[in-house]
Design goal:
- The protein is α/β, with parallel strands linked by helices.
- It has three domains: about 120 residues, NAD(P)-binding Rossmann-like Domain (Rossmann fold); about 150 residues, NAD(P)-binding Rossmann-like Domain (Rossmann fold, 3-Layer(aba) Sandwich), CATH 3.40.50; about 90 residues, Alpha-Beta Plaits (2-Layer Sandwich).
- About 30% of the residues lie in helices and about 20% in strands.
- Strands 8-7-6-9-10-11-12 form a seven-stranded parallel β-sheet, with helices on both faces.
- Helix 3 crosses helix 6.
- The longest helix is centred in the C-terminal third of the chain and has 21 residues.
- The model has no long low-confidence stretch (mean pLDDT about 95).
């Protein structure tokens, strides 16, 4: 009989995704005890006592700052996310931010909200006041895109279709991202080159130690007078204090972001949205579907796709008997695993091992059933973090 699994949900997860868990094999809910897997969106897990039997964590979104990834590394627990699933939603919000800033729509809306009187009086005030909200059109202006992953590439493509000139910078662009990037995007060799060249600059990088305050006082000084800065990545990418100073000095025209903060409140040239990047029904469905499929594939077949702490390790089954092993990336690990199996009389049919940083993961298909004693013996190898036996149903 196939294993059954318990999945704890810490936030409201789209039902479109949750329906992909077969009910005869999965118990899913926000009060599940002793879970095998946890699904999360924004819940802060850093202070949470994560049960020891948890085998995998799935984040229905891109960022994993709310998950204690390092602690999960110590247990050999993969942390999945859903890269690109909300990319279109974020792209649309970035384009909306561009238009709101370029056409001076925020103060215009505030102006209309304060109108009083009958239609004749309103029309008179509107005709007298609308000139102060004159804006600029996007075509022939330059947009700098810092970070050319899925979102950055979609933003670049949309901006080109709006008639803008696009300059992009990403020192770690992936092959897949490079293939999807429009050919019209001009490649920059540094962040400084982008900032000096563009009237609009949009940020699409993850928040890491290297990217915290990526836009600081020195770099802001390089931007064109009257430039517009957009940040739909993470709050810490931009130094809010120096942005406020640049706005007060009229060096920046607008700062558009998805992260309200105390330093930004009350600033007339700040357009701050309440973290709406992925807040569409479609994005929530897409994220849930992607992460549920990844969690299922790991629990049932041991395959890892889109984990933030492990390399992608996916192997087609060539035997009903499979073992998945998470281990530290140290020498002779495969040799020790193979020796343990050989001593148990197991013939290795197929094996795949990949590493990422300090973490490694091994999938092994063998030609005969694996006893609990063999699993225990492999788990006792120094450096092995977790071992799972994954036979197909009926074996």
């Amino acid at each position: 009989m196939a294993d059954t699994f318990k999945v704890l949900t810490l936030n409201s997860i789209s039902g479109v995704g949750l329906k992909r868990f077969p009910p005869e094999r999965y118990q899913v809910g926000n009060e599940v005890k002793a879970p095998d897997a946890i699904l999360v969106r924004s819940h802060d897990m850093h202070k949470m006592d994560i049960p020891s039997q948890v085998k995998v964590i799935g984040r229905a979104g891109a960022g994993t700052n709310n998950i204690p990834v390092e602690k999960m590394n110590e247990r050999g627990v993969p942390v999945f996310n859903a890269p690109g699933a909300n990319a279109n939603a974020v792209k649309e919000l970035v384009i909306a931010g561009l238009l709101i800033a370029a056409r001076n729509l925020k103060p215009a809306l505030d102006f209309v909200g304060g109108l009083k009187g009958d239609d004749k009086a309103i029309n008179l005030v509107v005709e007298q006041g609308k000139k102060q909200f004159s804006g600029t059109e996007l075509p022939r202006h330059s947009l700098g895109v810092i970070g050319l992953g899925k979102i950055g590439s979609l933003v670049a493509d949309a901006a080109i279709k709006l008639g803008m000139n696009v300059i992009g910078y990403d020192p770690e662009i992936t092959v897949d991202a490079a293939w999807s990037l429009p050919s019209q995007v001009k490649k920059a060799h540094s962040i400084e080159e982008v900032l000096k060249s563009c009237e609009y600059v949009t940020m699409h990088v993850p928040l890491l130690d290297l990217t915290r305050n990526l836009i600081n006082a020195e770099r802001l000084k390089l931007m064109k007078p009257g430039a517009i800065l957009l940040n739909f990545s993470r709050e810490g990418i931009v130094d809010n204090a120096v942005v406020v100073e640049a706005l007060a000095a009229k060096h920046l025209r607008h700062y558009v972001c998805d992260f309200p903060a105390r330093a930004l409140l009350g600033q007339p040239q700040v357009i701050a949205l309440p973290h709406l990047g992925a807040s569409t029904r479609e994005a929530e469905d897409n994220c849930a579907v992607m992460v549920v499929d990844q969690v299922r594939e790991f629990l049932e077949n041991g395959n890892i796709v889109n984990a933030v702490n492990f390399a992608n390790v996916a192997m087609a089954r060539e035997s009903p008997y499979r073992i998945g092993i998470a281990n530290a990336n140290v020498p002779n690990m495969l040799g020790q695993i193979s020796t343990a199996m050989a001593k148990a009389g197991l013939n290795i049919h197929n094996m795949l091992n990949k590493s990422r940083g300090e973490m490694a993961y091994t999938l092994v298909d063998v030609d005969s059933a694996v006893t609990p004693e063999v699993v225990t013996r492999i788990g006792e190898i120094d450096g092995v973090l977790s071992v799972r036996y994954l036979p197909l149903e009926g074996h």
